[in-house]
Amino acid sequence: MEGEPQSTKVRTGQAAIFDSPIEHAFSREPSDLVRLPLATVGMVFLPLILSEICWAILKRADIPMTHMIGEIIYIAANIITVVPLALMARAKGISTVAFGWQLPKSNDLGLGVAGFLYGLLIAYPVAAIINGRLGTPIPTHVLSIDLRPVPILVQILYAVILGPFCEETVFRGFAIPRLMAAGLGPLAAGALSLLAFAAAHLIGWGIGAAIFILLWAILPTALYLLRRNIAASLTMHVLNNIIAFVVLPIFMSNH
C-alpha cells in the first residue's frame, strides 16, 4: 500500500532475500530444525564421548592405541552422530538444506580461502604468542604421518573429508540454527557453538590447541552466519586440515 514502509527483506518460502550480508548475518530467519528437540544440540559432544569410551575400552583390554586406530574411532563416532541426526530430521520432513548442506558457490570458495588465510596468518601466530606466555604449547603429534597407503588414506578421511564435514554440520550447520530457533540471537548462538567447538578439542588436544581452535573457529562461525550454509566454513576447514594434517607432516617427514 502507498505510504506503507517497505520491508528490508522479501520471504520466498523458507528463504529470505536480504539487502546486505550484515543484515543476513544478524537475521533471525526461522529454521525447520526447530522441529527437533532442543536436547539434540547436546549431540555436538557425542563424537568426543563415543571416542573416549572406545579409547577406555581399548586401554582396559591392553590393546595398543595407535594414531590410525584413534582416527578410525573418531571417524566412526562422527558418522554415528551425523547419520542419526540426519535421519531424525528426515523423519520430520526436514530437508538437508536446513543443516547448511549446499554445493559451494564461487563466493563460498573465496570466503573459505580468505578464512584459511586468517587462520594461517592471524589465528595461529596470535595463539602461539598467548600459548608462549601461558606455557601451553600446541601439541606437535599431528606432524607425524605414516605414508603407507592405508594409514594415509585413513588420515585423509579423518582430517580432510569426514572430520571437517561432520564437525561443520553439527557445530555450525545444526547447533547454531537450532539454538536460534530456541530464542537465542545469532551472536549468542554463534558464541555458544564456538565455545563448544573449542571445548570438544580440549580433552584430546590440550589447552594450547583449544586456545588456537577458539581463535581459529571465530571465522567459520562468522562465515556460517554470513552465508547460512556450511560451504564457506567447510572450505576453510578442509584447507586448514590439508596443510596441518597432510602437507606439513609430509614436509616435516622429509626434513
Which class of secondary structure composition applies to the elements? Answer: mainly alpha
**Number of distinct beta strands:** 2
Shape summary? globular
Structurally, how many domains make up the residues? 1
Rounded mean pLDDT is: 89
Q: Over all CA atoms, what is the radius of gyration?
A: 20 Å
**What order do the strands of the largest sheet run in, or round the barrel if closed?**
1-2
Low-confidence stretches: 1-19
Helix % is 55-70%
Number of helices: 8
Helix-strand pattern: EEHHHHHHHH
Give the CA-CA distance, first to last residue: 72 Å
Q: Please outline the major beta sheet.
A: 2 strands, antiparallel
Approximate strand percentage:
under 5%
Descriptive report:
The chain is mainly α. It has one domain. Helices cover 67% and strands 3% of the residues. The chain is built from eight helices and two strands. A two-stranded antiparallel sheet has the order 1-2. A hairpin with a 2-residue loop joins strand 1 (9-12) and strand 2 (15-18). Helix 4 (106-134) crosses helix 8 (231-253) and helix 6 (186-216) runs antiparallel to helix 7 (218-227). It is globular. Residues 1-19 have low confidence and may be disordered.
Helices and strands in order:
Layout: E1 9-12, E2 15-18, H1 21-25, H2 46-60, H3 67-91, H4 106-134, H5 149-181, H6 186-216, H7 218-227, H8 231-253
Antiparallel strand pairs: 1-2
